[in-house]
Write a structure and sequence with these properties.
It is built from one helix and eight strands. By secondary structure, the chain is of the alpha+beta class.
């Protein structure tokens, strides 16, 4: 009797494993299993024409608009942006800022010296997410080159 029950249990486990294989092969999530949110950076736009003088009098503040999207069943609970730029004078600039995780866009305020422009950038978004019975982190990066404004080479 016990031997027959053991055989039935083994056959049932074997059959269930065959049912799970197609779902795993197609990348489908098995019910109850959660993964961190997937973050995709859609767009990074530097707005040199909208620069304002820095409040401390040294340089200027340039808005950089960021758009992203998220996918997944987990809930994003915070989102940090880190923008690193190499500049036309050979220096680097960096800004870190918490973004509203419930939104899909935000604006970073990049501090730059006068007559210096950000050329290449790397934007990294790092988020923390939670789901029933777990938590995790998500990360996305995008690199690129900002277009130079028409007055980038002009001397004042």
């Amino acid at each position: 009797m016990i031997r027959k029950l053991t055989q039935v249990a083994l056959v049932a486990m074997f059959a269930l494993s065959f049912l799970a294989l197609p779902a795993m092969a197609q990348g489908k999530k098995v019910k109850g299993v959660k993964e961190p949110v997937e973050i995709t950076i859609v767009n990074v736009t530097k707005k040199d024409a909208m620069a304002k003088p820095s409040p401390d009098g040294a340089g200027r503040i340039i808005p950089v608009d960021v758009q992203w999207k998220t996918a997944g069943d987990a809930r994003l609970i915070n989102l940090e942006a880190v923008l690193k730029c190499s500049n036309t004078d050979g220096t680097t600039s960096e800004v870190k800022m918490m973004l509203n995780e419930k939104m899909t866009s935000g604006t970073l305020m990049l501090k730059m010296p006068n007559d210096v422009f950000a050329r290449e950038y790397t934007l990294t978004l790092m988020g923390k997410c939670v789901w029933e019975g777990g938590q995790g982190t998500s990360k996305a990066s995008k690199s690129g080159v900002f277009p130079m404004p028409a007055n980038a080479g002009a001397k004042k």
